[in-house]
Amino acid sequence: MKVDVLLGLQWGDEGKGKVVDVLTPHYDVVARFQGGPNAGHTLEFEGKKYVLRSIPSGIFQHGQVNIIGNGVVLDPVLFRDEAESLMQSGVDLKHVLKISRKAHLIMPTHRLLDAAYEKLKGDAKIGTTGKGIGPTYTDKVSRNGLRVGDIFCNFDEKYSIAKKRHVNLLEALGETVDIAEAEAKWLDAIEYLKQYDIIDSEFVVNKYIDEDKKILCEGAQGSMLDVDFGSYPFVTSSNTVCAGACAGLGVAPGKIGEVYGIFKAYCTRVGSGPFPTELHDETGARIRDIGHEYGAVTGRERRCGWIDLVALRYTIMLNGVTQLIMMKSDVLDGFPVVKVCNSYRVNGVETRDFPYDIEHGIEPVYTEMEGWNMDMTGITSPEQFPEQFKAYISYLEQELNVPITIISVGPDRKQTIDLRNNR
Ligand code: GDP
Ligand code: IMO
Ligand code: MG
Asked: I need a surface site. Which of 95, 136, 190, 287 has the fewest CB within 10 A?
């Protein structure tokens, strides 16, 4: 059985957590392949809301195995907080969760380095989540990292070498380092981690594939934050595109099946960096208000704008998307006109191709569509969609050349319309 991948096509926060939860009953295994607690994946059902950061979004269904893959970076303290709060809610986490031995550990000093590098950049700062993501992946690539598997073998020595190196770096950057309290908590959380099923996840995942088990890989962030293809340097430090699922779980490229590309009916971004269709006006503020566009974890205001098909065509290409999932359609319910950016004017020349530099000289060219002016949050089948909304979907499908198969009209699990059996 091939492995399916679900990932964000914009700048993150597309609604991945909700859809993974909705799709989980069709799968045996859900696996995260990159990112770490910079993610905040929100799920809502039965009047309750949960935000997941490092733990996959498949833990609320019916006993599916959930895996934190080797491509993930794990902060033991945040992991413990997340795990304990889930167990208090009745989730039988210890029986369903497995963690790769090869996942890298975020240390307290990684967070200090994240903050110090941001401070150094001044106005050019990335606007990171401050969770130590960049420095942890930097240590991984420069072959200095600590992995989950290390906690069982000579850990004290490995930890103190890594810490010393970080402290030297921080002091060279003019920082005073006082981590005694954070360190004690972190070392305690390392002990806590030992109770979990720490595995060679690449073997386990491939065994499941051979046994014809159905696996869903859950992406974090979005393709426009990919370290290679995103709006560099305003990106995260991992490969958020589909190839990241191969490297982050040990799945061969030929084993990838469906690629679900998820996007909002409009567009948002949190943190610094270019955003061609950003609205700095009343309309942008209205989208933010109606869509509750504030970070799931940090509470930071998300920047809002119209949908950008130039960027979407680019990320659909990079990921080999086979099905599109459109989220937050209901947020546009009351807008008399909905705009779609289908091309950019770059220094006066119109193009549909995504340019190297999206920061300078870019003017989005919009197609205006009639709004639907109807509350869609209670819709349960596609026949109930207003004609103007149907026209919006058809236009996007025609321009993106991939079918939209699932539409979300509200944050709850139930507010999801699957078009696959309905068309
Ligand atoms: P993720 O990081 O991709 O999982 O997305 P987030 O959880 O960070 O952000 C998505 C937000 O939109 C969450 O607050 C969800 O509860 C909410 N949401 C998801 N789908 C819909 C939808 O169709 N309509 C509305 N109004 N909210 C939604
Ligand atoms: P989910 O999985 C939205 C952004 C940060 C910053 C940049 C780098 O919930 O979609 P980092 O801490 O990764 O070094 O920050 O990436 N960012 C996200 N934006 N959703 C996310 O995750 C994000 N994770 C990181 O705001 O601009
Ligand atoms: Mg999020």
From this structure: 95
